[in-house]
Amino acid sequence: MTYQQNDLNAMLKGYVDSFEHTGHTQVSLDTLRNNAGFGVGQEFAGFTDLSNQRFSVQLVSGIDNSRPMNIYLYFHTIISA
User: Fold this and answer.
1) What range does the domain containing 76 cover?
2) pTM of this prediction exceeds 0.90
3) What are phi and psi of 10, to 5 degrees?
4) What is the DSSP secondary structure assignment for residue 29, as one 8-state letter?
5) For residue 60, what are the CA distances in angstroms to 9, 23, 57, 64, 67?
6) Closest C-alpha among 45, 44, 43 to residue 17
7) pLDDT tens-digit profile of 2-35?
8) Spatial distance between the Cα atoms of 33 and 23, rounded to a whole number of angstroms
């Protein structure tokens, strides 16, 4: 499976939407912009079981050593016993 995103607006919208679905309503586009933040959200087409699969993230950006940044990956998931 491959999910590629090039549209910055779609990335941000997906990020904000992902937190809204978890009940965290303090995340908004205005909050991100005011704090110079950025997020990438990817909505999968339905339930995707990755429990037995390895996966990777390939990120291309203009970030370099002169101004390093941290990246955090958040996965909103369904856990069942």
Assistant:
1) 6-81
2) no
3) -65, -35
4) H
5) 17, 30, 10, 11, 15
6) 43
7) 777 788 888 888 888 877 767 766 778 888 788 8
8) 21
Residue 29 one-letter amino acid: L
Which tokens go with 41? 């959200």
Provide the 3-class DSSP secondary structure of residue 34. helix
pLDDT in tens, 30-64: 887 888 777 888 776 677 777 787 778 888 888 88
**Does residue 1 form part of some domain?**
no
Q: Does 40 map to a domain?
A: yes
Q: What's the total number of domains in the chain?
A: 1
User: Nearest 5°: phi and psi at 59?
Assistant: -120, 125
Which phi and psi (to 5°) does residue 31 adopt? -60, -45
Residue 25 inside a domain? The answer is yes
Q: Burial level of 15, CB count in 10 A (0-12/13-18/19+)?
A: buried
